[in-house]
## 1
Amino acid sequence: MSQKISLTRYLVEQQRVDGLIPAQLRLLIEVVARACKGISQAVNKGALGGVLGSAESENVQGEMQKKLDIIANEVLIEANEWGGHLAAMASEEMEGIYVVPNRYPQGEYLLLFDPLDGSSNIDVNVSIGTIFSVLKKPEGHPGVTEQDFLQPGHRQVAAGYCIYGPQTTLVLTVGDGVAMFTLDREQGSFVLTQENVQIPEDTKEFAINMSNMRHWDAPVRRYIDECLAGKEGPRGKDFNMRWVASMVADVHRILTRGGIFLYPWDKREPEKPGKLRLMYEANPMGWLVEQAGGAATNGMQRILDVQPQKLHERVSVILGSRNEVERVTGYHKGT
Ligand code: P6P
């Protein structure tokens, strides 16, 4: 039987081989993974743990928070604040940044996360997940401010998510491809189950919330209409559609078998560039997809090149199989 490679061993060997993972970054990733194990336990308890339902509060986005949103956020804060690897954290569930308290040593990394993405699916037992992104704190000045977080996605040093589904799987990149680790609940550790993940350049599967069709801009409407036209249409092939309404689940499917995911700008709230958040949803997912050979744009430019202006800013997201993303982006550019 082939020897199981734990997340710890994988990180140590990657660190030893190519120095991509300095000791403090390895510690950070292991702490986040351990926190995700704790979140997975809470999610798996469901109604038995009294953790379902609304927390009767709103987050910074003005969205109703679920009890598990708050629990997941607290688990990540408490797990990461004392280790000495972080200067500060930012979360979808917190308005401002969380600076590591003075009683703990400050580190050189910034951690951003959506502690529980897809939380509208919690109460109906559909896959949800934690998304995280790691940046280095800019040097040359003491302390840490929100401005330090406003770096484009190509400055990430690590990114990943943990999906809480039939399996609990951690998906990670440090810039040398994408690896997947499945939680072995008997051992209580994440075990390497796939590395060098590759997204097929073409696909027959698209993911978009079709109920918004009447609000889409022309390029998105054209692309989806052509997919729906199937074999008899300009694409000359039939397409399948999926929409889980958990970005983590839709992206995991695309990393596993290809596809294209779209959450584009639409006319419902024209002042907003999109629904999804740049810093802790689009950037980490965009980097993972690119590291697996796919592409991620906002319709006009590479998502990882977008210069953030605000911590919680939103962005239009088109990501997945490279040839499909390039087609949709071409329609936006009129090429
Ligand atoms: P809609 C979940 O709330 C989320 O942020 C993403 O995970 C998901 O892709 C999207 O929103 C679903 O949005 O409008 O279809 O409910």
## 2
Amino acid sequence: MTEQRIKNLQALLSDQGLDAMLVSSPENRRYLSGFTGSAGSVLVTANRAWMIVDFRYLEQVQMQCKGLDVIRQGDTVVDTLRSVIEQEHLSSVGIEDHALSHRDAGHFLNLEKTVTNLRVVSAGGLVEQLRTRKDTGEVDTIRKAAQIADAGFEHILGVIRPGITEIEVAFELETFLRRQGASHIAFDTIVASGWRGAWPHGVASDKPLASGELVTLDFGAVVDGYCSDITRTVCIGEPTSEQRSLYDHVLESQVRALHALRVGMTGREADALARSYLSDHGLGEAFGHSLGHGLGLEVHEAPRLSKVSDDILTEGMVVTVEPGAYLPGFGGVRIEDDVWFRPDGTVEILTHAPKELISL
Ligand code: ZN
Ligand code: ZN
């Protein structure tokens, strides 16, 4: 599986006129090698791939990284890279400066001064571009992470009650996700109740939930490195007509977007599917963030579905669809699902938790 990914990167390198690429980002490294350790680099040339690690990981890479040659890192990865460059006669090497400290990036760039005829090029984003198109194994893993998130929502409905704090709800939810097989949570769980619901990213606080409040829960599970990301908003007690109307508008915008999403659209066109509906109903200003984002080894990755995104939606992508509306002092509603663009271009929704307004 990683063999195909390395081949895809080799094709991109040749398009870019690069002899090699040094991959340092943890997610990109894992994607290309299967290596789950916390340090190391993958070096890919036109016809070979190496995993460069220090002695702590030698045994782990033998087990996890089939198809890559292993190089034990010398004093520094820069020294090791220099010797491979010389041995393989490489004249242009891409680095992921976005994943390197300023200092390390400087060391790599300095190789140009000590190795004759070498170009070191900033090539961040190449592996990220490959990662946007998921293979079926990756989608199956995200689907599992989504199922755990769905189960988490069902579970937390039995926990939410007036008086319990947002932090207690988050803790109960996170513990449940872990018990269901999540290795981690995908990000700090958002529990935003009442007036705090007007903050789109209100990480759980010590505020107790109260009767009559809308509560937004945004959370996700990680399975084998892959994230799910779901949001649901519920009401404690019977919703007022204003709360119901806000909820119904957000839900309608989300369902419309899910039905109309197509392969070939730009991120901007996808974003407009929900935004135009909310704007027509006076909620354009209240929808202050973008419609969604790619989902995979990172919870926010390419593509972007936003007002300013020219990213093209293609087969294999997994993205979120998460319109919201936030009214200061009143509260907020957000509804988020994860979707996959199947190889035939149709859309499959991976999250299935109920979306009608639930009053608890
Ligand atoms: Zn989310
Ligand atoms: Zn999201």
